[in-house]
Amino acid sequence: MSGRIHIDHFTTLDGVAQAPGAPDEDTDGGFAFGGWQAPLIDSTDGAQVDAGIKSMDALLLGRRTYDIFAAYWPHHLDGPDADIARKFDAIPKYVVSRGTPELSWRDSHLLGGDLRAEIWALRDRHREIHVIGSIDLSRTLVTENLFDQLNLWVYPIVVGAGKRLFPDDGPPASLELLAAESPSEKGAVLLRYRSKGSIPPTGDMGAENRGS
């Protein structure tokens, strides 16, 4: 059985996935709410995130997210985040980029060719590959239907403008809900989806009454 591609995203109630972890994580567009997730994470969603990290055997990242991770996690192999840091350090990291970035973090590899072919090659090498953050890459994977499961943590906060996985001008998509996990103590809900294709079904809720 080929490996599976998981996309992991933390989003606000209005769909913003930009800079959940820290104020200076991503200030593009003058984003003023970096670190919005920090006050809202608790033991429930923390355990869900930990379980996903334990299950993965490879990371697939966009260039910006890779740079953020590489600047942080190799320096936290001891301390409160050591389990996560050591896991990320130990597994292969695959970076999608059109350029030639310096990939100094150990076991990091550039994917710069045909993305569809690269994804299928990863499926042959790994059991469970996770995309974390990497909004632009995640949009492409959804558009091209190159993922198996979307894990979406939705938090009870509205921030307005910011980067979204599903932007206003983005392509259509149809998804099937696989599971809605019990909400966390602070109101986060983990929704798990799989793709049903790029053309959402439509209908007419008044058709039956007009035909009678």
TrEMBL record:
Single biological process term from Gene Ontology: riboflavin biosynthetic process
GO MF, one example: 5-amino-6-(5-phosphoribosylamino)uracil reductase activity
Bacterial bifunctional deaminase-reductase C-terminal domain residues: 7-180
Pfam families: RibD_C
Name of the protein in question: Deaminase
Protein's organism: Mycetocola zhujimingii
